[in-house]
Amino acid sequence: MKIETSVVINRPIEDVFVYSTDTENTPEWQTGLLESRVTSAGPIGVGSTIRDVRVFMGRQAESSVQVIVYELNKEFTLKIESGEIQFNARHLYESTDDGTKVTFIAEGKPKGFFKHAARLIARKMQQQFVSDFQKLKYLLEDVEESKVRSSPSLAASI
Fold first, then answer.
1. The whole model's pTM is what?
2. What is the pLDDT of residue 157?
3. Which domain holds residue 46?
4. In terms of C-beta distances under 8 Å and separation of at least 24 residues, what long-range contacts does 90-99 make, across chains too?
5. SS3 of 44, please?
6. Which of 127, 84, 96, 102 is CA-nearest to residue 21?
7. Looking at residue 28, which CATH number applies to its domain?
8. What are 88-126's pLDDT values in tens digits?
9. What residues pair up with 56 in beta bridges, in sequence order?
10. How confident is the model over 50-71, as a mean pLDDT?
11. CA-CA distance, 93 to 103, in Å (whole number)?
């Protein structure tokens, strides 16, 4: 199963990258994400681990997440394992004349209950990801720069 979506956000690449990779911000723009916290020591980077709790299709699930690629302002890739769904989530960042293009690619194989409903799962995930990245666009374009920069991770990068 492969799902891809992209969005152009009228913000500098540095703001988009840092805001969207900060686990304190992800529940604000990812549907169904109830909690996200880094479980490893040190700053976020390759090898960092994250624990997510989310609701998807009426089911609450805890996910173990590992950062497998962290290239500042270029790529942020996660390996996500949540019982019956395991996939990699790539976030690719590219500067454009209009701001920042974020391309999101999720690839994985559902197991158990989700394996039997793979087409339905893929369709629901596609809808959710498109909605999530539109919400990210809205949040970043609608917020005053001073508010975006007050994000703990953004402030650290300045």
1. 0.84
2. 40
3. 2-157
4. 91/20, 91/21, 93/13, 93/16, 93/17, 94/13, 95/13, 96/8, 98/8, 98/10, 99/8, 99/9, 99/10, 99/11, 99/12, 99/13, 99/16
5. coil
6. 102
7. 3.30.530.20
8. 999 999 999 999 999 999 998 777 766 777 777 788 888
9. 59
10. 90
11. 7
